[in-house]
Design brief:
The complex is a heterodimer. By secondary structure, chain A is an alpha/beta fold. Chain A has a domain at about 55-180: Rossmann fold, CATH 3.40.50.12280. Chain A contains six helices and four strands; from the N terminus they run ααβαβαβαβα. A four-stranded parallel β-sheet of chain A has the order 1-2-3-4. Chain A is globular. The two termini of chain A are about 30 Å apart. By secondary structure, chain B is of the alpha+beta class. Chain B has one domain: Cytochrome-c3 Hydrogenase, chain B (Orthogonal Bundle). Chain B has helices spanning about 5-10, 55-60, 65-70, 80-95, 100-130, 135-155, 175-200, 200-205, 215-220, 225-230, 235-240, 260-285, 335-345, 345-350, 355-365, 370, and strands spanning about 15-20, 30-35, 40-45, 160-165, 165, 305-310, 315-325, 330-335. The radius of gyration of chain B is 22 Å and the shape is globular. The termini of chain B are far apart. The chains are: A alpha/beta, B alpha+beta.
Chain lengths: ~200, ~375
Amino acid sequence: MGVEKKRFLNQFEADGLKQVVPEDFPGKVIPGGNGGNFVVTTLDSVINWGRSNSLWPLYFGTSCCAIEMMQTGAPRHDFSRFGFEVARPSARQADLIIIAGTIVNKMGPVLRRLYDQMAEPKYVIAMGACAISGGPFYYNSYSVIKGADHVIPVDVYIPGCPPRPEALLEGMIMLQQKIKTENMSHKVNPIDGFDEGKV
Amino acid sequence: MADQELETKIKTEEYFVNMGPQHPAAHGVLRLLLTIDGEIIKNVEPDLGYIHRSIEKMCERDSYQQIVHLTDRMDYLSSNINNEAVCLAVEKALEIEVSDRVKVIRTIISELTRIASHCLWWGVMGMDLGALTTYFYAFRDREYINDIFEETCGARLTMNYNAPGGLMFDIHPNFVKRTKDFIKHFKTKIPEYDRLVTGNVIFQKRTKGVGVLTKEDAISYGVTGPVARGSGLSSDVRKLHPYSAYDRVDFKEALLTAGDTFARYEVRIMELWESISIIEQLIDNIPEGEIKATTKAVIKLPKGEYYQRVEAARGELGVYINSTGTKNPYRVKFRSPGFSNLSVLNHITKGSKIADLVATMASFDFVIPDIDR
């Protein structure tokens, strides 16, 4: 990869395609692709296109939101239009956890284990008020974790109790847009520093 | 060599398999500790608490109007029936007589909820047994009911439509027409369900004679709902202790005596027809009347204990309220159908195969937040 990249870059410069910045340009020019070069950014866009359109969710529903999640997969809303239809029962085959429901203290370690079992890259959608903040169980409850982001890092939050299928679809499309901005050269693992509170 | 001789020569040993809490056939986060010998189940021990949300304890800090919205999240598939149970208990304590209009609307919405719940059960049971088509068929029809609910009260699943003393607001002008349209549509769909699944040889082989529950066991384990009725135990609260408008409609209690998984399946299909018949009897003559009886802004129940039982989609739901005369209850206890039904699982699946356990569990139709609360 390294050798190829170098050769290609030399070719790129030899063709006179180097970006010319005027001397008196007031701002700072950030190269395209967040610092990546032509090869990497092109590869990125291809990989991100593939990743974002074939996200495999995990069968993970703890309570009411699971019904709306199933309804989103059902004929009228049909999330397979966006590449989400291959729901996997095993965390090792999934790319995405849709946390559909309340996470209680006893379930917290299980959720974390499922997240750790997933292969990278992995994404998390917090669906519904319970997964965002504890929702209706925020006050006076002794057993509910007040938000799934105390356990694992979350990419997209979808409010509602439960959210409508359209809202879930919107959240899924937002996640796809987020994936499309990723790049390989500056890969960040969301769990790094999560337990220390740095994220 | 005779098979028996071979069997004695193979040495087997019991081992332990963890089913759940994240398992697609567990319908949520139920964890079963299975002790198995080969494929034969020796013991099933449910481990609960993975979705225990302390609803009963939270009720002690809430006012009586606020309790209603928590019950939606208990058995979310029969949300309106749960709401109704709490409201009926509070109304019983306050000795409020709600108008006929409220009674009839509550009954219709509860029966629509029951149809939606049984639809989902039918789709998921097929999925558990390896038929994905049922899921698409059932959810297609369920969406029509969600539309009706949405137009009536704004929510699709957790409705919170009942309030102590009546309903939150009146039905939408389109309600009657849409419900009639749905009934007309759904009447053509149940035979389709039958053609697809009920008569299927593979389905029958996997369900007939599997997970047999006798009537005596059903009584001693406190099993209720379609599971008990599949074993010939008459337990329909709508029939035995009528509430709301069930005393003015004519319907049959679905009863079968086989007690196996297929009988439980058939009972639920029969209940779909009965629910349709109940709605048809009521939908044309919803009486006029007040939508909400006047209650005080802060409801205080007189000192004492109150109990109300209703027939939820999974069985008998009991609401026990202990009041000391303040604006909060002293103790609220829900007798949920799923908890009692789960207790019999070990008894009837011992000695069967793992695949039979999945079929039996599918016919029990567990909702885990209902069990854990």
